[in-house]
């Protein structure tokens, strides 16, 4: 199915999404690649771009980061802020923004995104958020792997209907993402394609096919 991944689409998505239960995006645990890639970094300022239900933003706050968590969906942010308040994660500023046009006031020590796919072309979105990393800072992109968009991910709860995985235009390869990062400006630390299981509604487990790219900005 074709979608415009605009504010109306995401708002409707979050309003329709179940509040809890296995596979609910609202209660999924933090993305495991975040802890793996970030836990050895010295905490500073962080942007979670397309934070959704906020699990990654909360994890960052709980690990000492001063977090800006941005999403286009007011519905997603309301739930995320509520859960953060309940868990005492108070180092998060939740902002509603279309990251296709938003500009930060300052650059961040860490910019991360997990499966955000806006209306703009995916790789151009990654270019855009990469520009918000401060010198010496880190970019961490976790995205959907291209070529696994039809089967195997159905029901994974990352914003797609249950018969189809993420659409082709929202998926990438590790080489394509890393290839956007000029060697003069970036040291690519991680560029991998991986798969993992995630609990899904009905007691099932689905397989997520992911791209994980971490890079450090040289200047
Ligand atoms: C598939 S969900 C992933 C949410 C969360 N990061 C996670 O891993 O569970 C994609 C998120 O990106 C947000 N998003 C999409 N387009 C956006 C845009 N232009 N600006 C900000 N957020 C956007 C959506 O509202 C949604 O919460």
UniProtKB/TrEMBL annotation:
Domain Methyltransferase: 47-137
Record-linked Pfam families: Methyltransf_25
EC number of this enzyme: 1.8.1.9
Alphabetized UniProt keyword annotations: Oxidoreductase, Transferase
MF (Gene Ontology): thioredoxin-disulfide reductase (NADPH) activity; transferase activity
Compositionally biased intervals (Basic and acidic residues): 147-166
Highest taxon listed in the record's lineage: Bacteria
Region (Disordered), start-end ranges: 147-167
Key word Oxidoreductase present: yes
Keyword Oxidoreductase among UniProt keywords: yes
Record InterPro entries: Methyltransf_25, SAM-dependent_MTases_sf
Protein name: Thioredoxin reductase
Species whose genome carries this gene: uncultured Blastococcus sp
């Amino acid at each position: 199915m074709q979608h415009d991944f605009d504010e109306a689409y995401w708002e409707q998505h979050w309003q329709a999404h179940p509040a809890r239960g296995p596979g609910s995006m609202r209660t999924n645990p933090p993305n495991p690649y975040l802890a793996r890639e970030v836990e050895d970094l010295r905490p500073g300022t962080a942007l979670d771009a397309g934070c959704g239900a906020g699990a990654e933003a909360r994890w960052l706050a709980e690990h000492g980061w001063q977090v800006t968590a941005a999403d286009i969906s007011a519905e997603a942010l309301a739930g995320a802020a509520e859960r953060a308040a309940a868990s005492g994660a108070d180092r998060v500023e939740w902002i509603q923004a279309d990251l296709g046009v938003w500009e930060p006031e300052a650059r961040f020590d860490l910019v991360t995104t997990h499966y955000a796919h806006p209306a703009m072309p995916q790789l151009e979105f990654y270019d855009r958020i990469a520009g918000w990393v401060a010198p010496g800072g880190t970019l961490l992109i976790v995205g959907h792997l291209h070529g696994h968009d039809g089967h195997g991910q159905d029901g994974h709860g990352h914003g797609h209907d249950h018969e189809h995985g993420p659409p082709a235009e929202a998926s990438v390869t590790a080489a394509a993402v890393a290839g956007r990062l000029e060697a003069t400006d970036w040291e690519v630390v991680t560029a991998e394609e991986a798969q993992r299981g995630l609990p899904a509604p009905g007691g099932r487990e689905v397989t997520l096919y992911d791209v994980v790219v971490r890079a450090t900005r040289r200047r």
